[in-house]
## 1
Amino acid sequence: MKSQKVYLGFTVVGSREKLELVKTIAMMLEQRGHRILTKHLLSDHVRIEEGMKSPEYVFERDMKWIKECDVFIAEVSGSSFGIGFESGFLLGESKKKVYLLYDAALKNDISKMATGNSLKKCTVLGYNSISEVREFIEKHF
């Protein structure tokens, strides 16, 4: 499979309890030759680091990456408005593939706009284990 530029979405201000899983996803994608545009989201201090930037700067930077990426993957278990905006923008304004992953045990706490998405260019995975995420990455990337 050809190398892709990946916009890996993960919340900055919502629950970051899935950070280690997202770091693992990034590592798996990079091992498969893909480039993560949003590696800064993997920082343990991203909220402080992003807090030093203006909202306009973050918006313009992220929109540039959204337009540049080949694919969008987001872990949405602790999602926030940003992830909803990013995925909605791509689903409405592009032909790019969108992948939404969430912890199946948290399904009732996640927007049904994410878990119930049936658009053809969107793939949703409710996972129960890291091995299911690993199989998903191997199958799609």
Note: Helices lie at 19-31, 46-51, 55-68, 81-93, 112-115, 130-140.
## 2
Amino acid sequence: MKKNYRKGAVGALMDEYERAVEELKSLLNTIPLEEYSEIKDLDTIDPDCKSVQTIMNHVVRAGYGYCNYIRKQFGDPFTERKEFYDVETPQSACTHLDEMLVYTEETLQNKYDITFDDILKNIIKTNWGQHYDFDQLMEHAIVHILRHRRQIEKFMVKA
């Protein structure tokens, strides 16, 4: 099967983001419905990390948030993200991940030719106080998915 790679540094980030999402979706498709919403971490105080379902709402919500940071930085129109997404089942979570990927692709499609200098000079301040350049924010978005995929894998080992 021939893989189509997107153009440039921004394209590479989008390719890796898509790969991370596909790996997460593959994992979600192995989780029985009855375990998906079950509280897996009784000790956490983070409401976003109690079950696979709460993690998926957090991951989808964060994905839209990263896009909106980029859209605002470049003066592009954006849609406010929701507080809660319909991720009641692994399948609905996969659907929302796909929709989030489309939004990300739309966010980045006119930025594949951006110069590295333009990437570095676009500093984005997040609501958690971190400052990222455009490249760092996308790298954070990729690793965010990877970290939560790992967290879900650990949940399922304990099941």
Note: The chain has a mean pLDDT of 95.
## 3
Amino acid sequence: MSQNNLYPIFLKPESLQFLIVGGGNVGLEKLTFLLKSSPNAKVNLIGKSIGEGILQLAAQHDHVFLQERSFNQHDLIGVNVLVLATENNSINRSIHKMAKARGVLVNVADTPDLCDFYMGSIVTKGDLKIGISTNGMSPTLAKRMRQMLEEVLPDDLHQLILNLNRYRNSLKGDFQSKVKALNSITKKLIA
């Protein structure tokens, strides 16, 4: 039986520099996904040709900068996270090699063996965010799970989170006593 050994983390894209290479449909999909979850992400997108969808999306976000030209190795300076979406496997592999030499985290569209991370499906309800991964094996299943959770989870979860945060902040004592008090209250959620 296979095991998913990925370690889920939640990045703060507004404090990192993202680079997407590819101005076609795959680049649009990756940019859309990133901005849906993190509208203030700092993104540079480079593509020989940039599609209309990307132009429209970038126009709605002040932190997205487009450059219609070929990739240059100097484009990696200052980049923390790279998403390769050129639809050309040899170009993706070449840029991947340059990025890894600089210690940049890389996602290569539809090439799991070259990915440091996957862009899984995300469910967002206010401050609640749930990441879904199939270890890169079935993005379609992850999408369906997202759709199901979006339907099942109530829209007012944000208020519950705010109330629990206020309660947590009012608690006195050490870490263990706070955890015990919060566990006591939230246990009722699954009863």
Note: Residues 4 and 11 are 20 Å apart (CA to CA).
## 4
Amino acid sequence: MIVSVILAAGKGTRMHSDLPKVLHPLLGAPLLEHVLDSAEPLSPAQKVVVIGHARQHVQAAFPARGITWAVQDTQLGTAHAAHCGVEAILPVRDEDPHVLILNGDLPLVRPETLKALLDEHVRSEAKVSILTCDLQAPAGYGRVVRSKEGFVVGIVEEKDADASTKLIQEVNVGIYVFRLSVFKEFYKRIGRENAQGELYLTDVVVQAARAGRKVATFKVACEREVAQVNSRAELARASQLLRERILDNYMLEGISIDDPASTYIEKGVRIGLESRIYPFTVIHRGVEIGERCEVGPFAHLRSGTRIADGGSIGNFVEIKNSTVGIGTKVRHLAYVGDGEIGAHVNIGAGTIFANYDGKAKHKTVVKDGAFVGSGTVLVAPVTIGSGAVTGAGSVVLRNHDVADGDVVVGVPAKTIKRN
């Protein structure tokens, strides 16, 4: 049985923000969500998150994840934070479960890596296991010190390391697996005699090793996967790395992305087979795109957008909280907000869905087969009927619905007879 404990109590002073570090957005999701999602495939029996700074905001951001919240009122170090989390573990059938402890600022760790760490922990019958990595530039990380036989005998934090220790490239990443009893036993033995005057979680590992408890390691091959986020610059770099991973996955699934370097797609976007994303496109979390669609270039799809199969969204088009029906085209210089567009509709260049009246948002409906001429302004709430046509430059006023098959032109738009 496994229990996950995520350490998310820090303020993140290097972010220079009132927002807790773990709530800073990374491709549409808070940092903490990425870490939770990495541990989720391991099916932990209990998910504990240790919070401290602005904890009410952190709790409010995750109302439905089944989290047990543990509070670290005073930040006395990583071991103290882990202790707060361990104390929140509920009694379970397995009285000595495996406890996976993760830092909340590691959003790029893959579930496969966590599973490999846990598998090695179980296979080797270790009491403690740590995830390590060889870094080309290890500054800022705790160095893993090994004996001649290769056993872990120490983990030395950067501020406590001498010149020779700083040359070690194998570092502690900040992810551990403990037997619950082992953590509790050796947490009691550590002190605060270090450069920062804190209770280090790494000291719990060292105390266990010195007492003869088996300490195993699993080394992650790609250092990009264990990149920490402590500043806005590191957040931006993590965004680039995660975006590359997301785009690669889409392309492996049969979606064309012409220029990944200029394409921004957040976490949680669904794109159907054979769709094509052109350069300089921005797609936010919560967007769904059907099969055989085209999006871009220079398109902006905001949350709540649904594009049905065969839809075509062109250059300099922004769509927000709207549905676009099968085979519908919105090709040029248009804004569609709070809209419901049917199948096989043409939205002409420069069309605006004027959805906001200064106080509230309103809905525009364009039914199947309608043709909205270039430069049309649809003032919501309003409905354009099936097969209806608006002339170029028309302004259809609010509540002045256009009936099925009608043709309207002018400012304000008025019905004319079909020729």
Note: The first helix runs from residue 31 to 39.
